[in-house]
Amino acid sequence: MQWLDGLIQGVLLGGLYAQYALGMALMFGVMRIVNLTHGDLMILLALIGISLSSALGIGPWMVLVLLVPLAAAIGWLLQRAVLNKVVSEDPLPSLIATFGLSVALQNAMLQVWSADTRSLPGGGIEQASWQIGSIYIGVLPVIVLVAAICLTGGLSQLMSHTRFGRALRASAADVEAAAMTGVNPKTVYALATAIAVGVLGFAAVFQGLRSTVAPADGAAQLIYAFEAVIIGGMGSVWGAFLGAMVLGISQSIGFRIDPGFGILAGHLVFLLVLAVRPQGIFGRN
Amino acid sequence: MTPILSTKGLTAFYGDFQALFGVDVEIAPGETVALIGANGAGKSTFLRSIMGLIRVKPEMIQLDGRPVGGEPPHRIVSGGVAIVPEGRRLFAGMTVEENLRVAIDNASGRDGTWTLDRVFSLFPILKEKRREPAQRLSGGQQQMVSIGRALLNQPRLLLCDEISLGLAPRVIREIYEIMPEISEAGTAVVLVEQDVSLAKQASDRLYCMLEGRITLTGRSGEISRDQIAAAYFGGSDAVA
Ligand SMILES: Nc1ncnc2c1ncn2[C@@H]1O[C@H](COP(=O)(O)OP(=O)(O)OP(=O)(O)O)[C@@H](O)[C@H]1O
Ligand SMILES: [Mg+2]
């Protein structure tokens, strides 16, 4: 029974990781931009959300409504002002630029919010759960999972069936050829990063509701997102979702083997996938 | 009549290396012009400058008499220029139809002379392979996709960079057979070719380029082999 519980809790945890990973699937998986601010941006958004909630006295769903457009605007600005200038075949410039930005963001967050851990009050929804036999299933984690599935499905449709999706895949495949076919890659990339960071707006609210956030937490989320994308296979949105599930389940099962082993179990499974199937589960080689 | 494209003293650089030294070319609406020259003469550089992939001064390239040098590629495309690039440059990981759709999505404002169906009737094999990943096609078929993609940008001026390169003679013939239909649609064409006789046959006028300069120009039917040999290799004594 405890293994079934581990599996279920793992899938639910995977739902949260999928929300970290989706934006990464777009930026790293498709556009091949290494954005080291990914986790910090999520933390920043969560902290903004928490401040908004207490300043305006609004509930988590209203925070979500405000935060997602703000997140998209931040993403758009990030691409326009920074990443479009450093994007090239060579991943090193984007790595260095975003590394600097990540350090700056963390310090700025420390200044504004201090190192305290905070969370977003959910008005009781964080404690609500269903009981099935001896297993408890939290209402909030189920909402997170359902949201993750909807976001993944929507993004997948966007990538395969829209003008924007085609333009983005074309730019990622050969940016010069895409430009010669009439695509404006800078606009397309700005929109893609707006979407990627917009999704982090969802992740930020759910992270704030499900657990706590502090300015230095971003690194862990960054790693989970990278791992999920690589486990699933570069360029595949559902792959990233699946990778997030693998990670969530590994951590949850690992935690039941030994509470200190949970996080490590996730990393070990990641390394195992890397060794056995380096192109990822859905990846082509 | 205003030329659809003219270049005036076009110079182009790769870093410190100068690849073009004052190239003057004019193309009238609807005409087919060949550009020939040896490896490294600067033909692709010329086309890439027109497409906005190389920084040049605005006046150096004029579309319908309007300076456009240095504008980004997507603006050049909306101005009515499309290119079949050297090496085909299809979008890997996307199907044949998706490759073509990118061009439809981003076509110039010109009315829809070219449709997916019309491209499929030019190259019936593409209709059969429309759901295949583009990179899985043969070289000739990939070239057809690349041409179809350029046409679906609805160009008034089509630039073709060595579309015969690496293809079997039968496939080259098949591809060149569609050129008249492109011209009949009122599209001007620049054909960059290494195969001189093919270039002469398929064009109204011809330019020969050598080391970044135009060394010969005239009506394709009136230029002699000796003139071309001299312009191509640089002086009659250049090759023993
Ligand atoms: N990216 C680049 N960087 C530096 N030099 C370049 C670059 N591309 C081309 N060149 C140089 O510019 C000159 C012109 O090259 P270009 O590709 O335009 O020639 P071409 O006439 O198209 O030749 P080919 O028939 O082989 O395609 C050559 O000397 C080439 O070495
Ligand atoms: Mg060339």
UniProtKB/TrEMBL annotation, chain A:
It comes from Mesobaculum littorinae. GO terms for biological process: amino acid transport. Pfam families: BPD_transp_2 (PF02653). The chain crosses the membrane at residues 6-29, 41-58, 135-156, 188-209, 221-249, 261-282. Its main location: membrane. This is Branched-chain amino acid ABC transporter permease. Keywords: Amino-acid transport, Cell membrane, Membrane, Transmembrane, Transmembrane helix, Transport. The keyword Transmembrane helix applies. It is found in: Cell membrane. The lineage of its organism: Bacteria, Pseudomonadati, Pseudomonadota, Alphaproteobacteria, Rhodobacterales. One of its GO terms (molecular function) is transmembrane transporter activity. Coiled coil: none annotated. One of its GO terms (cellular component) is plasma membrane. Belongs to the binding-protein-dependent transport system permease family. LivHM subfamily. CDD domains: TM_PBP1_LivH_like. It is a multi-pass membrane protein.
UniProtKB/TrEMBL annotation, chain B:
Residues 5-236 form the ABC transporter domain. GO terms for molecular function: ATP binding; ATP hydrolysis activity; branched-chain amino acid transmembrane transporter activity. InterPro entries: AAA+_ATPase, ABC_transporter-like_ATP-bd, ABC_transporter-like_CS, BCAA_Transport_ATP-bd_LivF, P-loop_NTPase. It comes from the Bacteria. SMART domains: AAA. GO terms for biological process: L-amino acid transport. Keywords: Amino-acid transport, ATP-binding, Nucleotide-binding, Transport. CDD domains: ABC_TM1139_LivF_branched. Gene3D superfamilies: P-loop containing nucleotide triphosphate hydrolases. It holds the Pfam family ABC_tran. PANTHER family: HIGH-AFFINITY BRANCHED-CHAIN AMINO ACID TRANSPORT ATP-BINDING PROTEIN, HIGH-AFFINITY BRANCHED-CHAIN AMINO ACID TRANSPORT ATP-BINDING PROTEIN LIVF. Belongs to the ABC transporter superfamily. This is ABC transporter ATP-binding protein.
